[in-house]
Amino acid sequence: MTQFNEFAIRPSSKQALDAMDIHTPTPIQAETIPHLLEGRDVIGQAYTGSGKTLAFALPLIERIDADARTVQALILCPTRELAQQVGGVLSQLTKGTNVHTTIVFGGRAIGPQQDAIRGGAQVIIGTPGRILDHLNRGSLKLDKIRFLVLDEADQMLDRGFAPDVERILSRTATDRQTALFSATTPDWVHRVSSKYLKNPAVVELEPEIGEGPDIDHVVYEIWGGSKFEVLRKLLDEPTEGTTLVFGRTKYGVRNLASKLLRMGYDVGELQGNLNQQQRDRVLNAFRGGRMPILVATNVAARGLDVLHIERVINYELPETHELFTHRVGRTGRMGRSGRAITLLGPADLPKWHEIERGLGRKLPRINPDGEAVKKEAPAPVNGRGNRSRRKSYALGSARARR
Question: Which of 17, 191, 238, 269 is the right S-S partner for 257, CB 3.0 to 4.6 Å?
């Protein structure tokens, strides 16, 4: 397939794509949409920013009976922000049709959500906790579900979400069609998914040269100085786009954002302790370009689709290489270029080596003066006062592998 008008989709969907100025499917869309239109279950994995939402949204609409005012499709998302983003895409695709969608997640009054469901919404996009809340209250029934999507499937099937997801799936129709999509699909995702999918088509795409995100990676080795001072130096550099800074904990993100604010930086924070009104206000300002710097936990690593993010800075390391992939995927989206910067102290070396092993490559390192590192880094001292044997690697400037 080379054009969307070659797919067997509704005229209204083709018109919506024309209005969105979308004509040519991305590789993940070209590979998965035919399987989904045939009614097959699908596991789809492709790099961030590759168009996975549209890949499942178009076939989903084809399964909806617009005359039946009952819930027929469910999309489960790990974060409120991703649910809102997916809901926005579905709203564009269903504009002017009798297909109705609604978004449900915590932090907002449940009454209007119940009214939207009872009013005949056929497509529900939501987070597991609030979906379960509606199921337990009796305001949502999933026995007529035709199409189920787990977006960011690796997180949805991980230990944190898995119990809630399993409870939800146990209350859906057994003859449903199921799709799992994510930027990363570890081996355990395939093992666990066998419980939920029937003979799925598996599409795992690694970006070819020229297709993947154009991200310039660099790692700062900060052995004797302060990460914060290096961060300030980076934030003082002139940029055309916005900057997303990742911390590890809600407390750390709040403190870092407050410290930068006191020093005069125009910065906002996004972390789990904010209420929904605060989160919406921060994200609207960041998306609108009125807030040039956003400090966030991993809540922003998935589903934050802001095209003008020029840089992602890992002030603190993520727990896994999959999260690293999701974090840096917030820049270099939809054909744009971006930078991914990681600040590395001696105590970060064990975790960093794990991340690089998971990525299957080593990323270029420089010192705070911008000079390529050409000697071994000091090894961190272990609990017995001995130095661990760890190596640093000679680094230069390099682009992300496509």
Answer: 269
- In whole angstroms, what is the distance from residue 234 CA to residue 284 CA? 24
The pLDDT of residue 6:
87
Q: CB under 8 Å to 336, separation ≥6 — which residues?
A: 214, 307
Q: What residue type is assigned to position 392 of the chain?
A: S
Q: What is the 3-state secondary structure (H, E, C) of 278-339?
A: HHHHHHHHHHCCCCCEEEECHHHCCCCCCCCEEEEEECCCCCCHHHHHHHHCCCCCCCCEEE
| CB crowding 284-314: b at 16 or more within 10 Å, else e | eebbeeebbbbbbbbbbbbbbbbebbbbbbb
What residue ranges define each of the domains in the chain, with the CATH number in brackets? 4-204 (3.40.50.300), 214-399 (3.40.50.300)
Q: Return d(Cα 356, Cα 53) in angstroms, integer.
A: 28
Cα–Cα dist 48/330, whole Å? 8
- Name the strand (E) or helix (H) holding 398: strand 398-399
Q: In the block, which residue shows the tokens 């579900």?
A: 145
Q: Predicted confidence band at 386 (pLDDT cuts at 50, 70, 90)?
A: very low
The total of other beta-carbon atoms located within 10 Å of residue 5's CB is: 12
Strands ordered across the beta sheet of 201-204: 101-104, 123-126, 73-76, 147-151, 177-182, 42-45, 201-204
Please compute the mean of the pLDDT values over residues 153-173 and round it to a whole number: 87
Tokens 């922003």, residue located:
300
In this prediction the pTM is 0.72
What does the pLDDT read at residue 264? 93
Higher pLDDT, 154 or 401: 154
Residue type, 372: A
* Residue 77 contacts residue 152 (beta carbons within 8 Å): yes
Distances (CA, A) of 390 to 154, 221, 314, 348, 371: 30, 14, 21, 12, 21
* DSSP structure string for 134-153: HHHHTS---TT--EEEEETH
Helices 80-93/276-287 angle, 10° precision: 60
